[in-house]
Specification:
Radius of gyration: 13 Å
Number of strands: 8
Shape: globular
Strand content: 35-45%
CATH topology: Cyclophilin
Strand order of the largest sheet: 1-2-7-5-6-4-3-8
Order of helices and strands: EEHEEEEEHE
Number of domains: 1
Distance between the termini: 16 Å
CATH class: Mainly Beta
Length: 131
C-alpha cells in the first residue's frame, strides 16, 4: 500500500510530501493514517526533524538503528514522526543514526531542503493526507 501525506510548514508556506510504505511497518503506517490530521510542533536534531509527542501510538515494528537519507520514521519511544534529511549528531562514517530504534514508515518524495534547514525548533507543522 502506498499513500501520500503532506507535511505543511505554515511559517514558510511550504509543503513536503511523504510517500508512506507499509512493507516494513504495516501496523505503524495504519496508526499514522488513523491519527491524521495532526497539528504539532517540530524540533531539529542535526539534520533530523522530529515532532513533539503525537496521538500516534505504535510499538517497535521491525525497528531500525540506522536509516537512509530521506527516510520517514515513527519513533515509538517519543510517539513522534521523524524526517531524516541528513546526519544526526550521533551519525558516523556516512551512516545516519537515530537516537534510538525507529519504525520506517515512508520516504520524503519532494522536499525543499532550504525550508528544512531554515526551520527553528518548535515550529508548527500540520500533517495530513494529500489530496
Amino acid at each position: 500500500m502506498e499513500k501520500v501525506i503532506k507535511i505543511i510548514f505554515p511559517e514558510f508556506n511550504e509543503t513536503v510530501f511523504v510517500e508512506l510504505d507499509d512493507s516494513q511497518s504495516p501496523e505503524t503506517v495504519k496508526a499514522v493514517l488513523e491519527n491524521l490530521p495532526i497539528e504539532v510542533n517540530i524540533n531539529k536534531w542535526g539534520e533530523e526533524l522530529y515532532t513533539d509527542k503525537t496521538s500516534i501510538v505504535a510499538q517497535e515494528e521491525n525497528a531500525k538503528s540506522e536509516v537512509n537519507l530521506c527516510d520517514v520514521a515513527f519513533w515509538p519511544e517519543g510517539n513522534s514522526l521523524c524526517l531524516f534529511y541528513g546526519p544526526t549528531p550521533i551519525s558516523i562514517a556516512g551512516k545516519i543514526l537515530p537516537y534510538s530504534p525507529v519504525n520506517i514508515v515512508g520516504r520524503i518524495i519532494s522536499t525543499h531542503n532550504n525550508v528544512l534547514n531554515k526551520l527553528k525548533d518548535r515550529a508548527k507543522v500540520i500533517i495530513k493526507k494529500a489530496a
